[in-house]
Amino acid sequence: MTVIAGIDLGGTAINYTFCDAAGRFLLTQLCEFPARVTDGPTVCLDQIAVGLQRAAVHAGIDFTDVVVAGVATPGPASVAGVLSAAGSTNFAHPGWAGFDLPARLSTQLRMPVVYLNDGNAAALWGHVAACGEKESTSTSITAVAGTGLGGGVVVNGRLVVGRNGFAGELGHVLIPFERIEGAAELRPLCNCGRYGDLESLCSLTAIERVLLPALLPQYPTHELHRESTVRDAAKRVRGLAAAGDPLSVRIFSIQARALGLFVDQMVNTFDPDAIIIGGGIIETTEAFRNWFIAEVRKGMPPQRAEQRDLPLLLMPDGDTAGARGAALEALRHFDETTLQLQ
Ligand SMILES: [Zn+2]
Question: pTM of the full predicted structure?
Fold first, then answer.
């Protein structure tokens, strides 16, 4: 049996999954361990190797059947998976700067390793799950809104990675936010230095830095004034919105309308088969998710008749999306005859 491993290495947790040569997943539930990323690459790579063997036991897989692995991490990294020499938020230990993650992990695991950034990995999984048998001829755009906003673009079944690996950095696409009702007075500055990009309007960071500071003062008796930090208050907004709190509903409406304007840009650039939305923003009640998707649609300018039925889908199995996408990318690059990457 040929088994492909998928590894999603985040800032605080590692997820594992496995699929067979036909791309069928052999683990349905989340298989997650804490990640020792802050202890640097030596400790962390040992931990990945041990964890992967444990995950195989957990899944009832003979580890000798695992022939190739895909690994996903938050960026920035090169197309080949060399982590940024300038460091990154999630890989702050100096040992990670300029670290060739797939090459070193390949030595550690004694198998070829393929790299994707986690947004692209989630996008590939979302694409395959959404488009099914038509995935190789379909185009999809995935936006994952969590602490930041990541995602990816899949054209005719292939991830677009770009010249430097930065394709699919959808959070930094500029949005004409002044068109959103009640948003013209916002001052949405992103970490990247851009003003009014998607991440600055539609992410947990946007709630903390832009939306709550602008809107909470208009609700002087609101319970969020009692939270000790804006970050703590920001984390509560999703739950309060799902419960119908007017301020929180307003904040999520602005985020959804910003996504709607973004989706319209994607429609006119790619004429896609599907838009997939994932991340913490949708980890709530079904009723709230349905309302949110309807708000995204309301945020889109009028569409051509042919494009009005564009599916806006929710990411399935979101917590395992990065690991699943990494495994699928490894499967695509692996030659079973030579047991090497192609
Ligand atoms: Zn940005």
Answer: 0.94
